[in-house]
Amino acid sequence: MSDYFWFEGIPFPDTVYKREIIEESHDKFVIRDEDTVIVSYPMSGNNWLIEIVCLIQNKGNPKWIQSVLIWERSSWIETKKGLPILINTEGPRLMSSHLPLHLFPKSFFRSKAKVIYVIRNPRDVLVSAYFFLHNTKIIDNPESLGTYIEWFLKGNVPYGSWFEHTRNWLSMRENDNFLLLSYEDMKKDSINIKICDFLGKKLEPDELDLVLKYSSFQAMKENKMSNFSLVSEDVVNNGLVLMRKGITGDWKNHFTVAQAEAFDKVFQERMAGFPPGLFPWK
Ligand code: PPS
Question: Where would I find the Sulfotransferase domain in this sequence (predicted)?
């Protein structure tokens, strides 16, 4: 199993992260006005949105998504492999991050760069992460979902507390260069028009159809550039599956009634004050 280092209250597994890189991305990395960053708490649909944005940028042509690895098309700001790629990329860059707001590159707040922040029902995020992490060397395996729920509610998981992450990023939601999306909304085909508008792209109806086609769950599951089957063996145990189920509400198949009630209580406490319509899940 991976060792951790703690940085500003957040545990980062050594397999993928290094303290100096996190510091450099926060203090020195320059985000430029023309850049676009896709940000989410892990397991919220980040890779799905990367695929959609890559397709929008190419008017639905799948050549790029089928020939370049997804983490090279939209590299991760905070990872050992991602930051050097981004530093050496010229022109408008597409990039990804799971960083909480307080660790995000300082340069962003002086720029006009665009951020799309994706949220997802945290119960589904939790179930998705539980099954995903089983196949990695990223964390110690929790013995049961119940144990993972305890860790998640305390924020003792990679990238820390979902509640903190979401509360803090949502404080940006009135900004012009910030688009809030939810995984639940992404299930509606029309969402791609909203993404195009935000990115200043105009696609024809047949091009939008291609975006939908090539970013579908099935198409991404079959695309080895996107389905994580090529993640290196130092991170993976035996066969990493990113594309697990791709549905909303799977938590109902896994939580007990008592676990659901305990989760609701924490959610109500920690997310008090936000308009109810902001979280489009049941
Ligand atoms: S990561 O590794 O933290 O960046 O994971 P992330 O990409 O954010 O989230 C993984 C979950 O997103 C689902 N996914 C999709 N759902 C529907 N359609 C498409 N095209 C799609 N692509 C990815 C993926 O299946 C994970 O969710 P679960 O619930 O585990 O299936």
Answer: 33-274
Query: Best substitution site from 15, 39, 48 to test ligand 1's pocket, by max atoms within 8 Å of Cβ?
Result: 48
Q: Beta strands 4-7 and 10-13: pairing type?
A: antiparallel
Q: Which residue has the tokens 């009630």?
A: 261
Q: Is the pLDDT of residue 242 over 90?
A: no
Residue 16 CA, ligand 1 centroid: distance in Å? 19
Confidence category of residue 98, pLDDT binned at 50, 70, 90: very high
Give the domain ranges of the chain: 4-278
Domain spanning 4-278, CATH class? alpha beta
Q: Atom 9, ligand 1: which residue's CA is nearest?
A: 43
Q: How confident is the model at residue 1 (pLDDT cuts 50, 70, 90)?
A: very low
Class of residue 131 by CB neighbours under 10 A (exposed 0-12, middle 13-18, buried 19+): middle
Span 40-77, pLDDT tens digits: 999 999 999 999 999 999 999 999 999 999 999 999 99
